[in-house]
Amino acid sequence: MYGSKKKVNMCILNILREYTDEKHGLTQQEIIEHLEKDHEITCDRRTVKSYIDDLKDMDWQIEWENAGGTGILFISAKDTLSTISEIEKTQR
Predict the structure, then answer these.
(1) What is the CATH number of domain 5-77?
(2) What's the predicted TM-score (pTM) here?
(3) Which of 30, 32, 36, 84 counts the most CB atoms within 10 A of its CB?
(4) Torsion, Cα of 15, 17, 19, 21 (10° steps)
(5) Tens of pLDDT, residues 13-55
(6) Cβ count within 10 A of residue 16
(7) Structural domain boundaries of the chain?
């Protein structure tokens, strides 16, 4: 199942907030796997990158590190918002 762009952005943000911090990151492939497993959303690596870029454009502090040729993504500072529904409220 494909999700709306807004929903996929929020799901990726939720995945990053739940599973990452400055010491623990995820690859784009791991984000794809979480989207499929947790949210039944299918997308490819380029699409995930595009959504990550969108989130960065919205001033989310998403960082990228090169770990032995593999890019690792994480949120560098946790925000006070804790759920997708709270995040969606801020987008209205």
Answers:
(1) 1.10.10.10
(2) 0.73
(3) 32
(4) 140
(5) 999 989 888 788 888 999 999 999 999 999 999 999 999 999 8
(6) 22
(7) 5-77
